[in-house]
Amino acid sequence: MRVSAHASEAVGGGTSTTKQVETCLFFWSALNSSVPDIQNRSPYETARSETGDPLLLTPGPLTISAATKQAMQHDYGSRDDRIIGATRWIREQLVDVVHGGDDYQCVLVQGSGTFAVEATLGTLVPRGGKVLILVNGEYGRRMTTICNYQRRAFTTLETTESVPADPIALDEALTADPDVTHVAVVYCETTTGLLNPLGDVAAVTEAHNRSLIVDAMSAFGVLPLDLSELRVQAVVGSANKCLEGPPGFAFSIIRTDALRAAEGNAPSLSLDLHAQWLGFERDGQWRFTPPTHVLLGFEHALREFHAEGAVEGRGSRYRRNCEVLIEGMGKLGLEPFIEPHLQAPIIVTFRTPDDPAFDFVRLYQLLRSSGYVIYPGKLTEVDTFRIGCIGRLNEDDMRGVVAATGRALRSMGVPDRPVLAP
Asked: Which of 20, 229, 388, 406 can pair with 57 through a Cys bridge, CB separation 3.0 to 4.6 Å?
């Protein structure tokens, strides 16, 4: 466990920037190298989505339904009643997903999930505030970078990338530092698929009368999150994660009293959630050009989410995907980085085989040629790669990627070494 305090001056990229550069170089190499075919592959071994695209087993964007894509095939102006109505309905539905009731407001913001995290921190943390950020992966570290850019004071409570946040250490840190006004935590750390103990973190934060901001990007709509039971100031999510919408906007669900008190906090014009909330409340409109086609697609995706059984139904499918994936990869000798009781059913990080014949770029190419797109690891500790369980995917898709991985490993000369059950 490491606790560190930071001044608010901007810093260089460090480890985070290095990993970003490595990831960019990997994709450049993979996409510009020849892609060897797996010999004697039958047509049935090439996976395809409903619209004929490769399956995205990634942390987002995801494979989405053909109907969601079809819903985007319409043109509307920013101020059209259709867009205003869709925006209002989406905002109401997102609050309902987490049982926020009248105590919370949903504010949409153009861009990726990071846009919404940055907007939320900037809007809710006053210039004299201080954030304690729980860090055990890339997305916790990203919040420290945001605070540096925003000139907001912060401190960190760090654990390694396979260890969840420690509520006892949080209690001690808040006791020792009365200047902390906010705690920020990533519910599911997408770097690894690690599940952080949100309930315990919320309880400790509330006991110290501090405010809690939750990055629920990879958890929203699948993992339990009930704002009628947890004292949380804000929950941040994205359209293109477990709700299976297209990328293009994100959202923050914020306590109404906190939003009212946030006027003048934001260091940014376009990321001022208080100002955007006032705009929505006044006339239902976005202050700047909304992603109209994405809104229509996401509206349909939300209807699919409810038809599947909402959090319980979608969570059940994702959990089964995760179980099938881990079991199958274990038979190939591929071991998950995260312990089973800490693994969220979102994305699984696998250790790379300890074999000189293994080449991740080749694995990526071979899987891509079989219709599966996976992701490199983001860890600083060990070499890994990641396979997602979310999106328009099912158990058969998980079995398919396991089979394709087995063929790819054998083509490299990497033998199967089944992982023994604990």
From this structure: 388
Whether residue 19 is predicted with pLDDT greater than 60 in this model: the reply is no
Determine the Cα–Cα distance for residues 84 and 89; give it in Å rounded to an integer.
9
Helix axes 113-124, 138-150, angle to 10 degrees: 50
Beta-carbon contacts of 49 under 8 Å, excluding residues fewer than 6 positions away, are 55, 63, 66, 392
Cα–Cα dist 368/91, whole Å: 36
Report residue 6: phi and psi, to 5°: -135, 140
Model confidence pTM above 0.85: yes
What confidence tens digit (pLDDT) does each residue in 190-208 have? 999 999 999 999 999 999 9
Helices (H), ranges, 1-80: 14-31, 66-71
CATH 3.40.640.10 fits 76-307, yes or no: yes
Q: Which of 227, 228, 280 is nearest to 108 (CA)?
A: 280
If you compute the radius of gyration of the chain from its CA atoms, what whole number of angstroms results?
22
The correct answer on CATH 3.60.15.10 for the domain covering 13-64+310-412 is: no
User: Is 228:101 a contact under the CB 8 Å cutoff?
Assistant: yes
Q: What Cα–Cα distance (Å) separates residue 283 from each residue in 179, 262, 287?
A: 38, 20, 10
Q: How many CB atoms lie within 10 A of CB 126?
A: 14
Tell me the backbone φ, ψ of residue 59, rounded to 5 degrees: -80, 5
Contact between 155 and 133 under an 8 Å Cβ cutoff? The reply is yes
Burial class (CB in 10 A: 0-12, 13-18, 19+), 216: buried
Q: Write the secondary structure of 127-154 as one string of H (helix), E (strand) and C (coil).
A: CCCEEEEEECCHHHHHHHHHHHHHCCEE
Distance CA 371, CA 54 (A): 4
Contact of 165 with 196, CB cutoff 8 Å = yes
pLDDT per residue as tens digits for the range 221-262: 999 999 999 999 999 999 999 999 999 999 999 999 999 999
For 73-98, letters b (16+ CB in 10 Å) and e give eeebeeeeeebbebbeebbebbbebb
User: How far is Cα 37 from Cα 34, in angstroms, rounded to an integer?
Assistant: 9
Whole-angstrom distance, CA of residue 232 vs CA of residue 397: 36
CB 275 within 8 A of CB 264: no
CA–CA separation, 15 vs 64, rounded Å? 33
- Return the exposure string of 271-280: e unless at least 16 CB atoms fall within 10 Å of the residue's CB, then b: bbbbbbbbbb
- Domain extents for the chain? 13-64+310-412, 76-307
